[in-house]
Amino acid sequence: MNLATSLDQIKGVGPKTAAELRRAGLETVGDILLFLPRKHEDFTNVTPITELQPGKVTIRARCQQISTRPVRRGLRLTTAVLADDTSKLNAIWFNQPYRVQQLGSSDEWFYFSGTFEYNYGRYQLANPTAELSKELPVQVDRLLPVYHAVRGLKSQTVRKVIEQLRPLMSVLPETLPPSVVKNEKLLDRAAAISAMHFPRNEREVEQARQRLAFEELFELVLASQLNKIDNQKLAGFAIPFEKSVVQDFVKKLPFTLTNAQRRAAWDILQDFENSRPMNRLLQGDVGSGKTVVAGLAARQAASAGYQTAFMAPTEILARQHAQTLAKLLEPFGVTVGLLIGSVKGKARQTLYQQIASGAVDVVVGTHALIQNKVEFHRLGFVIIDEQHRFGVEQRQRLLMKVKNERLETGVLDTLSEPVTITAGSSRETGRAAPGSRARHGGEESVSSAPLDAKKPSITAVMPHLLAMTATPIPRSLALTVYGELDVSVLDELPRGRRPILTKIISPPSREAAYTAIDQQIAQGRQVYVVCSLITDSDSSDRKSVEAEYKRLKNSIFGRRRIAMLHGKMTASEKDQIMQAFKDQRYDILVSTTVIEVGVDVPNATIMMIEDADQFGLAQLHQLRGRVGRGQHQSYCYLMMSTNNKPSQRLREIEKSNDGFHLAEVDMSLRGPGEIYGRMQHGALNLQIATLADTQLIARAQKAAKRFIESGEPLSNYPALEARVRHNQRVTTLN
Ligand code: ADP
Ligand code: MG
Predict the structure, then answer these.
(1) How far away, in angstroms, is 257 Cα from ligand 2 center?
(2) What pLDDT, on a 0 to 100 scale, did the predictor assign at position 700?
(3) Domains in the chain and their CATH numbers?
(4) Residue among 288, 122, 224 nearest 479 (CA)
(5) Nearest CA among 469, 463, 512 for reference residue 489
(6) For a pocket test of ligand 1, which of 600, 622, 624 has the largest count of ligand atoms closer than 8 A to its C-beta?
(7) Which residue's CA is the closest to the ligand 1 atom numbered 22?
(8) What is the pTM of this model?
(9) Which atom of ligand 1 is nearest to the CA of 261?
């Protein structure tokens, strides 16, 4: 028997059990050993009912009576009477109707663990787990692992199989470098995994958790540090700062830049001067004014003779950016082109030519930019708007547009300094060359002994990259995943903006909301109404764009100009409607979340979100960001479809306009994995670690740095290497 042995070979695992395990994705001995418990129940402390104190408790009892009933939409209440030899107790479960089946027909003894509390006028046991007593080890003298019920898999089944495999635990190989295990005083891997399955006490669980969490974080931060080193091996195009060019641009703006915008622009212009490509994230809450910062940088790039590519996730946005940039740049003779799907035929061919010849200085577009047919001309700067909406690969393909061209035309040879420099010699130049410590003030840099120091330091030529996002990265996430990233933050909104007033609206207040909307329209303002469905659906009573459009048009807002917008329309239909809305030819736009990202109509002051509970916190914040972009007071109405108590999400968004704060809240409500999954198209896949553990993160960072400096090849640890390489791919910006 070894780790690769199929589970159906194990004694006591029949075909039925094997099938259950397989359905949960567990095929081999190795699979199930690494299937770690989600928590541990403490059965070492069973209390007689008469002696219970409020708080977390475990009792051993039988179920005398159980029933379930709907209380209101979305809520079922199951109640039971539990009894032991000393007394009786009421138990209550929310939305766990299966308890009736589990407990109702059985006269067996169960262990119940839950919270003993005073509620609804009496003491009760709330949401207890239930474990059949006779299935537990005779002597319940240890913590009991509870496993994820993947496709109905029972914890009991997993426990039985793992019990059989206990002797194999010791053969689980170590995956971390021994030096790391030793320096960090970690449990070795076999001991840690064993302790997760068979812990004797809380302390053992905690030690095991620490070790496994450390490993996950180590894999992340090592990847992030290696990415940084890789970036330092790239050559870019130095774009000198020209004071007069920048000053002229700023003078012509219809507003003054915020200090945050100035700082961000300065960061970018400084990076430009470097012959190493910029790799910078521009983070700024919705409406903070990222576009103009990007425009200023594009102006400077054009002045130095470099083309800029500006990629946006939707046609609506690309068109809007092209318009904005044309206004900003064309007075300086900088030309702007728009490449999107709806540009077709002859016009498209002409555009291709103009891009290839350099007749267009700034090319704005959607994914259309990364098609093979598109050839750029002296592409020196790439801007990616709403970067989290793109996959790593898409970003890379755009950046790679430069490489082929440059290598073919031999530009590499003319880039004298960085190309000829190796990791070893760069330090003597005293300039900010690849691998240099100078730029980091001698502290931060991890590159003094890159893993493959023998290779020449330059591996490719890349344009400067500015990735923009309104999705704030929680601090802890920034520390780990993006720990080595250059970030500029727009933490200040343009002057004169008034905070958006957000209100949760329950059904009885709907009419009043419409009245408020009508008054706004009478004053010349515009309104968004967002629905989560396009068409009415039988399986849901949520509002749809089509039905709401009709309803509003035929009743309350009969005399107003209403349009609808959704993803089933063609790109050109969408564009036309969006443009007409911008031009104030409509008062109300009923839309799906296609308007979520980036759309800028400063005259729109009301955002009404139907079935608001259907949306995530970040999405609500993004949607709300479509208003409050001009001088006028703006409002966001979160429409409830029932009189139920609003979710915590809605209450949080009602309270705060601060995207950073909301991101932190979102993370604590949903866990970082969820958030990260949305931010990047790759699984971060933290199973044990949480990003809240900043101390462990700091330790992992130091350890990773030390490991890199030791010069030991990562390839000595194949399992570790595979995961680190994966992480490098999913966490890189470029
Ligand atoms: P986001 O950061 O959400 O992409 P935009 O770049 O779309 O924001 O800018 C939002 C709005 O604010 C635009 O109408 C833009 O012209 C305006 N704006 C940007 N910077 C300033 C500023 N410094 N003062 C006033 N208005 C500004
Ligand atoms: Mg934007």
Answers:
(1) 16
(2) 93
(3) 1-34+147-171 (no CATH), 44-135 (2.40.50.140), 405-461 (no CATH), 501-656 (3.40.50.300)
(4) 224
(5) 469
(6) 600
(7) 494
(8) 0.71
(9) 23
